[in-house]
Amino acid sequence: MSISGRSPGSSEKPSGRAAVVCGLGGWVPQRVITNEELSQRFDVTDEWITTRTGIRARRAVDPGQATSDLAVEAGRRALHSAGGEAPDTVIVATATPDRPCPGTAPLVASRLGLQEAAAFDVSAVCSGVVYGLAVASGLIAAGVSRRVLLIGADVYSTVVDQSDRTNAVILGDGAGALVLRAGDPDELGAVGHFELGSDGTGEELIIIAAGGSRQRASDRPPTRAEQHFSMRGKEVFRHAATRMANSSRAALSAAGWKPDDVDLLVPHQANLRILRTVADDLGIDPDRCAQNLVEVGNTGAATIPLALNDAAASGALRPGHRVLLTAFGGGLTWGSCVLRWPDIDPPLAATVRSEP
């Protein structure tokens, strides 16, 4: 499904209100879990982990910390970056909400002093921020919202079985946030030309089976495995690489861009092999592919805003750059969109603790 303001390849100027990026922030927990620590736990080497994932470290929350705590910190940084009026809408994309009910977004909004803002969660797993961008763009275009705070946050350390080598070496905790305001489709920072899709027949490829109505209706207690995150790595790799590449091509075509026009590809930070496969399939040089999973791992819905944050902080992402975002997650879900990066102050790297 392609969602766009104009037909692929059209030179027609877009019209109406657009969602324009005006703020950015990221936050990861302080606790670092290194490959050396995991090597001792699983009797593997640092090289074994790095070769398969490209990850050398990941972050994990301390006991008692939850998704909302990380979301608030990332949101606060993004709001500081944006300045101006307070958002009237808060969206939190997460697969690890504080509770099954209520949503996490209203609590986050309240803790940020936005008690009367509309607030809701988006559940599209690792595709959540791209889906959230589409929702925010629609709300702004329709005149329902003037300013949206979109946060991607996950604490996978709370749902991954820490004796599960396959997933424990990949997944980490983190949060990233974007502020979007109403603006002109032609200005820097305007987000558009979305391509979104799903395939529910693959729901069991990435799943936490327990906790929802399906498991509860079975009238039996959940097994240990059902209470933890599960992923069929080989099948997911194939789907993720194919879906992100095809979705990216559709978004680029809708924007009238070619792969050579892209200054920075920002894919979901699943693992390094998937990133390289997608970039290669699109014909985009690896040097133009954002990669921050080396130090923070796969942070789920947080990966794209965190990668944007760290690329902007390092100077790899600069005003006017043509940016392609693409993601794949449980559901199965996937999505892509494009924008030209706005002229905003570079944020702090997510790992820097002091406030601006």
Automatic annotation (TrEMBL):
GO terms for cellular component: cytoplasm. Residues 269-273 are annotated as: ACP-binding. Residues 120-200 form the Beta-ketoacyl-[acyl-carrier-protein] synthase III N-terminal domain. It catalyses: malonyl-[ACP] + acetyl-CoA + H(+) = 3-oxobutanoyl-[ACP] + CO2 + CoA. Its EC number is 2.3.1.180. The last Arg residue of the ACP-binding site is essential for the weak association between ACP/AcpP and FabH. This is Beta-ketoacyl-[acyl-carrier-protein] synthase III. It comes from Saccharopolyspora shandongensis.
